[in-house]
Amino acid sequence: MTITAILQAKGGEVIHVSPTDSLLSAVDLLARRRIGCVPVVDNGEVVGIFSERDLLYRVAQDGAAALDHNVGDVMTTPAITIDDQTPVIHGLSLMTKRRIRHLPVVVDGVLVGLVSIGDLVKFRIDSIESEASSLRDYIQTA
C-alpha cells in the first residue's frame, strides 16, 4: 500500500505557511488547528517544515524575542519529502531513521499532502486487523 491510500482518507486540504510569515502567526495557526507542524512553501515549492520543536528550540535560545522572527528563520530545512507512490512501510522507516514525525507529500514539485507518523501507524494497524479478520473468517469457513 502507498501513501495515496492515506491521502485519500485524509482529504485534500493542505495547510502551509510561508517563510516570510511571522512566527507568532504560525504558532497561532498551529494552536487554532490543533496541529504539530506545517510545511513551509515558497513560490509553490516546499522549502522547509515548521514544528513545535522548532519553536521550542528558538524560545530556549532567544526567550520571548523568538516571536520576533519569521518562520524562515526557525524552520527545519531542507524538508524531507515523499511522493504519493511511496510505500507506507517505507514512510514509517524513513520517519524512524530520521527521527521525524511528519512528511510533506510532493508530486511533480507540488505539495499535495502531509502525513504524520500517527497516520501511517493507524493505517498499518487497520491493515493488519483487516487481514487478521479475513484469515479468521477463512479458517472458520474452511
What does this protein structure show overall?
With 142 residues, this protein is α+β, with helices and mostly antiparallel strands. The protein has one domain (3-141): CBS-domain (Roll), CATH 3.10.580. Helix content is 49%, strand content 18%. The chain contains six helices and four strands, in the order ααββαααββα. The chain has a two-stranded antiparallel sheet.
Secondary structure elements and pairings:
Blueprint: H1 3-10, H2 23-33, E1 37-42, E2 45-51, H3 52-62, H4 71-74, H5 88-98, E3 102-107, E4 110-116, H6 117-141
Antiparallel strand pairs: 1-2, 3-4
The profile of the biggest β sheet is: 2 strands, antiparallel
CATH structural architecture: Roll
The helix-strand sequence is HHEEHHHEEH
Q: Walk across the major sheet and give the strand order.
A: 1-2
The unreliable regions are none
**Fraction in helix:** 40-55%
Q: What CATH first level would be assigned?
A: Alpha Beta
Shape: elongated
Instruction: Classify the fold: give the CATH topology.
Output: CBS-domain
How much is the average pLDDT?
92
User: How many strands appear in the DSSP assignment?
Assistant: 4
What would you report as the Rg, rounded to the nearest angstrom? 18 Å
Q: Find the structural class using helix and strand composition.
A: alpha+beta
* N-end to C-end Cα span: 28 Å
CATH H-level superfamily: CBS-domain
Q: What's the number of domains? A: 1
Quote the beta fraction. Answer: 15-25%
- Helical stretch count? 6
